[in-house]
Amino acid sequence: MERREALRWLAAGAGLGLLPGIQPDDLLAFGRHVHAQAMPSSSAQLRALDAHANRTVIAMAERIIPATETPGATDAHVNLFIDHMLAAWYPPADRDRVLQGLRDLDARSRARRGQDFVSSAQADQTALLHALDDEMSAEGHWFGLFKYLTVWGYCTSEVALRETLHEYPLPGRYDGCAPYQARTRSSAPS
């Protein structure tokens, strides 16, 4: 399976599982809307994440979707997407669960190697994320939500749509059931 196919499968499968009744096109449109609101600018400020949590989110997302011959999660500003979703769209209980999970991840990293997650070697970061993956069978695990937001944020970013998924610009909508409107002679070009 190619990376592009895997990302489509993950985005559609995870999205429809967590948000029943929402179609993939709606997930894409909403994700694009969130990116437009969360894009970096001189006035962009984090709303749910503090500076350390933001660095942790960047490192985690880049381990999940690393830059290769195509852009990674950092290039897609997935951290800003996650911050905006946690601040503006998810209930406080979910936001708090993710923030507590980030603190727990740092505690595990310090217990394992004596340093926070972001200061650890990439191999140690990957090992910790694999351990979290193994624990995700428990319903409501914060890492499941984090991975979902990472993939959703990546797959709906302009850089991923353009350079990884090759789906940019997005085609316009076709409505085959729209009523026919005949042009009158006066509105026809001469």
Architecture overview:
The chain has eight helices and no strands. The chain is mainly alpha-helical. The radius of gyration is 20 Å and the shape is globular. Helix 3 (51-64) packs across helix 4 (78-88). Residues 13-18 have low confidence and may be disordered. Helices cover 59% and strands 0% of the residues. The chain has one domain.
Oligomer: single chain
Helix content: 55-70%
User: Compute the gyration radius: what is it?
Assistant: 20 Å
What summary fits the major beta sheet?
Answer: none
Strand coverage percent: under 5%
Q: Output mean pLDDT.
A: 81
Q: How many DSSP H or I helices?
A: 8
Number of strands: 0
The ordered string of helix (H) and strand (E) elements is HHHHHHHH
Structural class: mainly alpha
- The total domain count is 1
Question: What is the first-to-last residue Cα distance?
Answer: 54 Å
Provide the low-confidence segments as ranges. Answer: 13-18
The rough form would be described as globular
List keywords for this structure.
single chain, 190 residues, mainly alpha, 8 helices, globular
Structure summary:
The protein is mainly α.
List the helices and strands and how they pair.
Blueprint: H1 3-18, H2 24-38, H3 51-64, H4 78-88, H5 92-113, H6 122-135, H7 142-155, H8 158-163
